[in-house]
Design goal:
seven-stranded mixed beta sheet, alpha+beta
Length: 866
């Protein structure tokens, strides 16, 4: 195993300060210790110890290059700083722990945001890669009229007609059911044309990159897929058989590539040739565009005018569309280009690549929380420094009297704060390292702290140390250093120290931020509670959804098993589960103005669907037989069509299906509550088009029956089965909201804890200054309650003021967030009052602990110095 060495930048840093005769030996010793610590304590601790060693060596020799008296002075200042920190253990603990937790929070959120922003940046020439997007005005799908799918020949045509386009590729992400020896595997992969591998970086482990797909039946496997299918056997040249869209293929493995990086929008288990798809070949050979089914990517020249390019591509699309397929509305369609680097950050494009898009609004929320937590921890330091400044005034006066310059005093105070900052940041890095796996699991991202491999962390942490140190120590450094020694020693200016106004402003800011975060966290949980309790218009409880893709050959057997199961109350078949209906079509009302046509979501269901999901039938009936060409529409669809329930019954919807309306159903939510209920048509399902089986199970037999069904599916077919509760489908729609609630709640607790820690320290300082007053009041007969009230009153007034300031700000941001939902909870003043009450109780707890302690002291102890 190769011996670990110090990173090059560390060696260069040490060589810049060490004498030439010593540098080689010191660096060699550090590398020996580094190697030993890796073996004994692990790589992470070894790196921390190495960085600390390098830091101490650098400081020692950097100062020794200066004059000896300067080194002695700085060494003395460091000793004084450490002595003061030890002397004030409580306040040092509050400052260091507060800043450490703030830094850890800042690091974790920064790593998360940086990770989200890093998607797809590893591709060469990524700045010049763009995806072709269609905008179809009037054809909205789940709130967006942007579509990532384009015609098959679009990319080739663009490249041929526009010299600004250097390369173009078409691709489709589709499943392939691969036959194994005992079990089959359903894997999703990319079906690509010839230029994909030239545009997107793909690391080949084996096989020829230049000829991997020369063979039409060739298939490239990822390392994980190759291991799953062939184990340790070399897969090159092996044959694979399987099904793709009801067509059987015999493929030959031509190469193995590394798994796509986690921060890639491209998720695939294999790469195959699009020429294998007969539909693609047929679409590409047509002289005109007839359908959209493929993702198209372009590589453009540097500094190209994107707006001009978009106009030209739009004209190419409009001039090649098939007028018999595209209606007049297509004249308003236009093409836009989106950068490859923006795909992950843009979740508003339908049918795009990448399963877990980033929510830019939530990234902004998290970034603001990170800054707030860090600022709150710095405010703690400033507040305590201001409150304790009176105890340092005479020290400054003495130093100035014996000849210290203002710059030296400033340096001393800033040096102290930088030492605290350095210790806090070091501890913060360790905390972030420990919590990174937990945080990564919550946000479903591989977050890790690596101060060596993540090269930007080192300069970032150094900047953070200096920034925190300079900000936190700014008051004592800039204000106390200005005082005149004669006035200080005479006691003239001591009484003016401890800037009460600034303290009050900082306390108000701390608790206003805390109330804001508490309010946001409460509203997030309340909205999730509203979503969970909302009447969706159908009953999803105890309903199991089973994908029918592996049951096509055993449909009748499975139907008999389900029908004979006493724990299954009802069952039905459909093309979608009701929480995620994903097909739509325009219904032609046979008017001259095509704008009168109604866009309706569509799904095929059987006659038991309404009963299985408890969907209310308002008028008419459900389907009498599987052969009936009939449909039911919802109330919103009826209103959009302009008919009453009586008028609609018996009419034929002249759309893609030409089905007769036999019933009207009550509206139900077929998408997330972010979207309003849309027009819906449920048509009678035809044999062979079943995608899901839905089974209503007895409430007391749910888990038992679920396990039984899973075993039956495994016995019936070697294909992988997809069996889930409809609740799981529903919860998946709100994955980002649940993540937001968890992260928001966690960092809110941290922020409020930091604020309370600061208030605890301030209360301790304030009470220590008034210890004689407390003693006198106790001697004169004051009750403990009156003393507690006296000492806590000012702080609680500030907390109340922070609530008044925070409420309108919180109202604004919460109302803006709720605008993302078509259906949301009502803004309730009780939530704001609860947030204020929580902040007040926590503040009182922090204050009362100190005040009660003060009231229990013997008054003689407080008056002993008089």
């Amino acid at each position: 195993m190769e011996k670990p060495t110090l990173p090059k930048w560390i060696s260069n840093l040490l060589e810049s300060v060490l004498p030439e005769s010593m540098a080689e030996f010191v660096i060699g010793d550090l590398e020996e210790y580094y190697s030993t610590h890796i073996a004994q304590k692990g790589r992470f601790m070894a790196r921390l110890i190495m960085i600390w060693s390098v830091f101490t060596v650098f400081l020692s020799f950097a100062f020794k290059k200066s004059r000896s008296n300067s080194y002695s002075m700085y060494s003395h200042y460091l000793k004084v700083a450490l002595r003061n920190l030890r002397k004030q253990r409580l306040y040092t603990t509050i400052n260091v722990s507060g800043i450490a937790v703030g830094v850890a929070s800042f690091i974790l959120i920064s790593l998360y945001v940086a990770y989200e922003m890093s998607y797809d940046q590893f591709h060469p020439n990524s700045d010049n890669i763009y995806q072709v997007i269609q905008q179809q005005p009037g054809n909205e799908y789940i709130g967006s009229d942007l579509y990532a799918l384009t015609p098959a020949a679009f990319g080739d045509l663009i490249r041929q007609e526009l010299p600004q386009v250097v390369r173009a590729t078409s691709m489709a992400r589709r499943p392939f059911l691969i036959e194994g020896e005992t079990r089959n595997f359903r894997e999703w992969g990319f079906w690509i044309d010839g230029e994909f591998l030239d545009i997107f970086q793909t690391e080949f482990i084996s096989g020829d990159p230049n000829h991997a797909l020369d063979l039409k039946e060739g298939i490239i496997l990822t390392e994980t897929t190759a291991q799953k299918l062939f184990g340790e056997v070399d897969p090159i040249g092996k044959r694979l058989s399987g099904d793709f869209w009801n067509s059987r293929f015999d493929m030959q493995v031509t190469a193995v590539v590394a798994d796509p990086p986690a921060n890639s929008s491209f998720e695939y288990a294999f790469i195959a040739n699009l020429e294998m798809d007969k539909y693609y070949v047929k679409d590409k050979a047509r002289p005109t565009f007839q359908n959209n089914a493929y993702n198209t990517f372009l590589v453009v020249q540097d500094d190209v005018d994107l707006s001009y390019l978009e106009q030209e591509i739009t004209q190419i699309f409009l001039s090649h569309r098939d007028l018999n397929v595209y209606d007049e509305k297509a004249e308003n369609e236009k093409i836009s280009l989106i950068s490859l680097l923006d795909i992950h950050l843009n979740g508003g494009i339908n049918f795009n690549l990448g399963s877990q898009k980033a929510n830019t609004q939530y990234l902004l929320f998290f970034s603001v929380i990170a800054v707030i937590v860090l600022v709150l921890s710095c405010i703690n330091y400033m507040n305590i420094a201001i409150a304790s400044s009176i105890s340092r005034v005479r020290e400054v006066g003495m130093r100035k009297a014996i000849g210290a310059y203002k710059s030296q005093i400033v340096g001393q105070f800033w040096g102290e704060s930088i030492v605290v900052s350095f210790l806090a940041v070091l501890i913060g890095v360790v905390i972030a390292y420990w919590f990174a796996p937990v945080f990564g699991e919550v946000i479903q991202r591989p977050i890790q702290v690596d101060v060596i491999d993540q090269f930007w962390l080192i300069p970032g942490l150094i900047f953070l140390v200096l920034l925190i140190g300079l900000i936190a120590g700014s008051y004592p450094a800039l204000v106390i250093s200005k005082l005149k020694p004669s006035s200080i020693l005479k006691g003239i200016q001591i009484g003016k120290m401890g800037n009460v106004k600034l303290q009050k402003v900082l306390i108000v800011f701390q608790f206003a931020a805390s109330v804001l975060l508490i309010t946001g966290s409460l509203f997030t949980y309340k909205q999730l509670q509203y979503i969970s309790n909302k009447d969706l218009g159908f009953n999803k409880e105890n309903v199991v959804a089973i994908s029918a893709s592996n049951l096509s050959d055993v449909t009748n057997v499975f139907r008999d098993q389900v029908a004979s199961n006493p724990n299954v109350l009802n069952f039905s078949t459909s093309t979608y589960v009701p929480v995620d209906i994903g097909s739509s079509a325009f219904m032609d009302l046979n008017t001259e103005d095509k704008n009168d046509d109604v866009l309706m979501y569509t799904a095929a269901v059987d006659g038991q669907f309404l009963e299985t999901y408890d969907v209310e039938l308002v008028a008419g009936r459900t389907f009498n037989s599987p052969d009936e060409n009939a449909c039911v529409v919802n109330e919103t669809g009826l209103a959009k069509l302009g008919w009453t329930a009586e008028e609609a019954l018996g009419k034929v919807l002249d759309g893609r299906y030409e089905s007769k309306i036999v019933g009207v159903i009550k509206d139900f939510h077929m998408h997330a509550l972010r979207e309003p209920i849309a027009p819906l048509m449920l048509r009678n399902i035809q044999e062979g088009s079943v995608s899901y089986w839905s089974l209503k199970i007895k409430e007391d037999k749910v888990q038992e029956t679920f396990a039984q069904l899973a075993d039956q599916l495994s016995d019936l077919s070697p294909n992988p089965s997809d069996i889930r509760f409809v609740d799981d489908h529903f919860n998946q729609l709100y994955r980002q909201e649940y993540q937001l609630a968890d992260v928001f709640g966690f960092f809110t607790v941290i922020a409020v804890s930091i604020a309370c820690m600061g208030l605890f320290g301030l209360a301790a300082l304030a009470i220590s200054k008034r210890s004689k007053e407390v003693s006198i009041r106790k001697v004169l007969g004051a009750s403990a309650m009156s003393i507690v009230s006296l000492l806590s009153r000012d702080f609680l007034v500030l907390v109340g003021l922070s609530f008044v300031i925070a409420v309108p700000v919180a109202w604004y941001f919460v109302s803006r967030w709720l605008e993302n939902y078509a259906y949301h909870m009502e803004m309730n003043w009780a939530v704001f009052l609860l947030a204020g009450f929580i902040a007040l109780c926590l503040a009182m707890l922090a204050i009362v602990i100190q005040t009660v302690k003060a009231t229990r002291r013997n008054p003689v102890d407080g008056l002993r110095t008089e």
